[in-house]
Amino acid sequence: MSKAVSANAGTVGRQAAVIAAASGLILSMGLPANAADTTAGVSASTESGSAQTALAVTAAPTATVSFERPVIKTTPAPKVETVRAQSTASETGAQGAVATEAAASKLADASKLADTVSSAAASGLAALAYTGIGRPYVWGGTTPNGWDCSGFTQWVYAQAGISIPRTNAWTAMRPTATPAPGDLVMQNGGAHVGIYVGNGMMISALNPSQGTLLHSVASTGSSAFFTLAP
Fold first, then answer.
1. What confidence tens digit (pLDDT) does each residue in 122-180 have?
2. Among 69, 119, 196, 211, fewest CB within 10 Å belongs to which?
C-alpha cells in the first residue's frame, strides 16, 4: 500500500490544495485510491469493497496555501446617448419671428432714447433736467438732496436763471399744443408737474419709491403743456 501511495504522489499534488494550518492540523479528504503525497506523513486504510482510500495528510507548520483565481474579463456597458427632440419647421419659424420682433422693439426703444437725448441737448432746460435723474423724492423739498415734483421744476428753471413760482408755475406761462424740450408738463389737473424733454418723454420727481426719473408723458395721466416762449 505505501508503495502505491508513493508511486502516485504527483497525482495528489495536482488534484488537492495544500492547506496552511497550525502545527498538527490534519486535512481529511476522499481521494482516489492511487493518490498520495511523498512529502507528508501518510496513513491509509482500505475497506473491503471500497473504491476510495481515506488519507490523513498532516501539513507542516510552515506550509502555505495558494488558490488560483480565475481571470475574469469585463466589458463596459454601452453608453446611452440622450436624443434631443427635433423641432418642426413651423416651430422654428415662429421662434424666429418672435426673436425678430423683440429685436425690432429694442431697436425702436434705443432709437427713441437717442432722439430724446438729442432733443435734450438742444435745450438747456431739458439738459439740466437730466442732471436730476436719480435724486430722491421728498415732500416739500427744493434741492437735489430731496425735492417733490414742483420743487424739481423750480430748481431746473433756477439753474438757467429763470424764476418761476414754486407751485402752480404754469400760471406764469402760456399753454402750447406743440411743446418743446424744457417746457412744463402739467398733469392730472395740476396734481403733478415735470419737464418735457421731447419725443413724448418727460422727467419728474414722481414719488418716494421711484424718485426722479425719465418716463413717458402718457404713463402718468392726462397732460397739458406750458411754455415761456413768446
1. 469 999 999 999 999 999 999 999 999 999 999 999 999 999 999 999 999 999 999 99
2. 69
Q: Which of 161, 152, 163 is nearest to 129 (CA)?
A: 152
> What are 127's three cell numbers?
439738459
> C-alpha cell of 113?
432714447
Distances (CA, A) of 112 to 21, 145, 199, 201, 224: 96, 30, 7, 9, 22
What global pTM score does this model have? 0.49
Mean pLDDT by 10 residues, the chain (230 residues): 47 43 44 46 44 57 63 61 51 58 65 51 80 96 96 96 92 94 95 96 96 96 90
Cα 203 from Cα 224, distance rounded (Å):
15
Residue 193 β-bridge partners: 186
Whose cell is 463596459? That residue is: 76
First to last CA, the chain: 144
Residue 177 has what DSSP assignment? S
Q: Could you give the angle at the alpha carbon of 174 between the alpha carbons of 203 and 143, nearest 5°?
A: 35
Strand partners, 26: 58
Q: Which amino acid is at 191?
A: A
Q: Are 59 and 37 in contact (CB under 8 A)?
A: no
